[in-house]
């Protein structure tokens, strides 16, 4: 007599499938978390390399790289200004790319397209989606130098600032030396993260999951004059207006962040620099409507990391700053010579 065949019943099969599904549901977040931890570690390493390159630049030139430097006076006011990231290419083992730049020409001249288009991976945080460049073709960056803040922005009290005098502002900028960072290099921000812009400048609502890539106009805001006695109050009013914008607010621009790492005009605060007005991962705003380059825009540091942003300090270290950082502490980290005392446990 033949023995009966052994097999799974339908119920047993369904139970096994359910157990496998539960295991997958438990393991998938852990896998994603591990991948993000690896991306964040690579992001930190990139920022350390950039910080080291900045210090190599200081060793050679005695000053920090300028946010924008008019390398081609005969070019007029156009893109004859070199961005600060192009200045440190040699310290990032990108000397071959740096040597292709002809500083006697516009940065967007055909002769400079090699440097302008070749993408150094060290300028990209792996957590950000940079498969499409904001400009469509110019190499980009998801890191930005500390321009300063909070008010008035003409102070340029950060460390990555434009050369002065220039066509727009006669005073207040660089070059900046290590000695002028009197607050201490370990208490002063050098750079942080900013998610890259969107190609084609699409309009996105503040409620969008891509709103970090845009900036939003604050109606009725007026900037104060340099050293205005009510400057702090103007900043607080601006930030309150920015954070009170309804979720249905359309973006004033989405293409500008990181549109080109090699080019930077002195009035551009949202390409390769950011400011310490709003705290990390809050809304980036402008008080002057749909002008994506104005010095009065306030692009804040943001990232796709959970809970905060990586920040490189002027001493070359990199630390994680939480979204919950106190605003006064955030402002204090911006200034190179404000005289503030910031403890390491404040952020």
UniProtKB/TrEMBL annotation:
InterPro entries membership: DUF1559, N_methyl_site, Pilin-like, Pre_pil_HX9DG_C
Domain DUF1559: 32-327
A Pfam family hit: N_methyl
PANTHER family per the UniProt record, alphabetical: GENERAL SECRETION PATHWAY PROTEIN G (PTHR30093), TYPE II SECRETION SYSTEM PROTEIN H (PTHR30093:SF2)
Protein name: DUF1559 domain-containing protein
